[in-house]
Amino acid sequence: MKFTFNLEEFKCVTRLKVRFSDLDAMGHVNNATYLSYLEEARIEYFGCSVGFPGSSLDFGAVVARIDISYLRPIELGDKVNIFSKMYEMGEKSFDLRHVIQAERNGELFVAALASTKLVAYDYRKKESLQIPDSTREKIENFEKGK
Q1: Nearest CA to 119 among 91, 141, 139, 138?
Q2: 87 exposed, middle or buried (CB, 10 Å; 0-12, 13-18, 19+)?
Q3: N or C terminus of the chain: which is more exposed, having fewer CB within 10 Å?
């Protein structure tokens, strides 16, 4: 999965530091750790766009799919920026795109590209639901810069 992008179109950026525990035996960030990085980015995105508090565990969506293309390894000491953008909203689902950028010794590079499909979900009823109009409107306004 690859896609073209313009970082200026991404309104939400999550900044992370690579921890020693993120590394695998080869000395770079373990591929599974990218899922945790994307989780942080999703929480940040919904905080930026809809105003969900960062401490909330109940933001009404479940992950249906994540696709990641690993392009360059991230290493200890690298600074990581995850750019997130709503790519598409359906009746019940959200499609986010992420660009995972790293900085090493002053050089910026794209380490990975990812997409995440989320489904609006009612945890009490344990079923998917329509994206609320108020949520849709807040996301659309955020993406338009309003």
Answers
A1: 91
A2: middle
A3: C
For the four alpha carbons of 102, 25, 19 and 97, in that order, the dihedral sign comes to positive
Tell me which residue range forms the domain holding 51: 7-144
Residues acting as catalytic residues: 24
In a domain, 94, yes or no: yes
pLDDT band at 65 (very low <50, low <70, confident <90, very high): very high
What is the pLDDT at residue 51? 85
Total structural domains within the chain = 1
pTM above 0.85, yes or no: yes
Could you tell me the CATH number of the domain that includes residue 89?
3.10.129.10
Q: What is the mean pLDDT of residues 12-31?
A: 95
2 part of a folded domain = no
